[in-house]
Write a structure and sequence with these properties.
Elements: H1 6-13, E1 31-37, E2 40-48, H2 59-68, E3 74-82, E4 84-86, H3 92-97, E5 101-108, H4 116-129, E6 134-138, H5 146-149, E7 158-161, E8 164-167, E9 170-172, E10 175-179, H6 194-206, E11 213-219, H7 226-234, E12 239-244, H8 248-263, E13 268-279, E14 286-287, H9 294-302, E15 306-312, H10 314-322, H11 326-329, H12 334-356, E16 363-365
Parallel strand pairs: 2-3, 5-11, 5-12, 6-10, 6-11, 12-13, 13-15
Antiparallel strand pairs: 1-2, 4-16, 7-8, 9-10, 13-14
Helix pairs in contact: 1-2, 4-12, 6-7, 8-9
Bound molecules: adenosine-5'-triphosphate and magnesium ion (MG).
Adenosine-5'-triphosphate binds near residues 109, 140, 274, 310 and 316.
């Protein structure tokens, strides 16, 4: 009987022909473990996270293995879904500042209070739950809210790194985070001048020990001001995500934010509509408090992908206030499902963007833990 090896199994899986299954991102490393007992085989496999709507039946994987090794009677698959990241093209400016970071994503909006920080935090946790290494920069120097939303009060330590003193980002819910809110007292009034705020955001990139990350997410302040400009001038971002609410006053500002990123050559990876609707907990009736379909309409109009819509739910707000993001706190809720899907849509957009970016790309799937 031929020996059943990781490469044998990988070759079998690569024969799958299904548009919903991205076999190109599988490597030997994707097969985590194989265990054989007589004619029974157990395979632990790590594959790209799929969206809820994607119809792919994992039994197909067991079927192709069975076909390749007909002597097996019994195949147990343990599928671990994780994000697959394709490293962005090697830009010299980015390499000099953030050499270990594959992708940088700004979560932005034109208008304030639409839920950028809530979305940024939950997206970051969602990506981390799918196995990505994620960092989060609270780029809202004037009104940092990430420490509250992640329930962090500690001051970051410093480390001597490559002869340079760097801040160590704080750990929360599987991600790394830095915020001006950790460095200055909550209640102390600070009058930031534009250059100081820009300096702080730069330092969050240059003077923090980020190490290796698949994603570095920036929670941006509202609008299109100094901080946005500083960010795009410091490193070429992988892309921006625009958060909007469905009503026209918010959409007008979303269009402006979109145009600003286009003007500075930052690809807009997609639009997320927040506070899309409200489902009454008692009657389950749906109320479109801020109107309906606005986000999708603007996406079509400006030709950017629509990544999804998140309902208004008091549990989302409570998660922010108590410092436990809903995707972590109530993982089996409909809201968490929606946010996980949006994060997978985003991951897909990032991979598509990187495949089309000039320069060298390498496809990587889930490094060993
Ligand atoms: N989908 C939602 N359901 C319920 N509450 C939400 C939702 N999204 C955001 N919120 C709440 O709305 C408020 C504003 O959200 P958040 O602070 O994330 O907005 P922001 O766009 O980052 O604001 P700013 O422009 O001030 O940075 C917060 O109290 C948050 O908990
Ligand atoms: Mg905010």
């Amino acid at each position: 009987m031929p020996e059943i090896t990781k490469s044998g199994i990988l070759n079998a899986i690569k024969k799958i022909d299904d548009k919903n299954f991205n076999k190109n991102s599988l490597t030997l490393n994707s097969i985590k473990k194989i265990e054989r007992e007589g004619n029974s085989l157990t395979v632990d496999i790590s594959i790209p996270a799929l969206n809820k709507e994607t119809n792919f039946d994992y039994n197909i994987i067991a079927d192709v293995i069975k076909k390749e090794f007909p002597e097996l009677d019994d195949i147990h698959l343990n599928v671990q879904q994780r994000v697959s990241t394709i490293s962005t093209h090697k830009d010299p400016k980015k390499e000099a500042i953030l050499p270990g970071v594959k992708n940088t994503i700004a979560v932005a909006s034109g208008k304030g209070g639409v839920g950028k920080s809530t979305v940024a935090v939950n997206l970051a946790v969602a990506l981390a739950k799918d196995g990505a290494k994620v960092g989060l920069i609270d780029a809202d120097i004037y009104g940092p809210s990430i420490p509250l939303m992640l329930g962090i009060k500690d001051k970051p330590n410093v480390v001597q790194d490559d002869g340079k003193v760097r801040l160590i980002p704080l750990d929360a819910f599987g991600l790394k985070m830095i915020s001006i809110g950790l460095l200055v007292d909550d209640n102390a009034p600070i009058i930031w001048r534009g250059p100081m705020a820009s300096g702080a955001i730069k330092q969050f990139m240059t003077d923090v020990a980020w190490g290796e990350l698949d994603y570095l997410v920036f929670d941006m302040p509202p609008g299109t001001g100094d901080i946005q400009l500083t960010l795009v001038q410091t490193i070429p971002l992988t892309g921006a995500v625009i958060v909007t609410t469905p009503q026209e006053v918010s959409l007008i500002d979303a269009r402006k934010a979109l145009k600003m990123f286009e003007r500075v050559n930052v690809p807009v990876l997609g639009l997320i509509e927040n506070m899309s609707y409200f489902i009454a907990p008692d009657t389950k009736n749906r109320y479109d408090i801020f109107g309906t379909g606005g986000g999708e309409r603007v996406s079509k109009e400006l030709n950017v992908p629509f990544l999804g819509g998140i309902p208004i739910n008091p549990q989302i707000r409570e998660g922010g206030d108590k410092g436990i993001p809903i995707v972590f706190d109530i993982p089996d809720s409909n809201e968490s499902d929606i946010i996980m899907d949006i994060s997978r849509n985003l991951n897909e957009r990032v991979n598509i963007r990187n495949l089309n970016a000039p320069g060298k790309v390498e496809i990587l799937l889930g490094d060993d833990d």
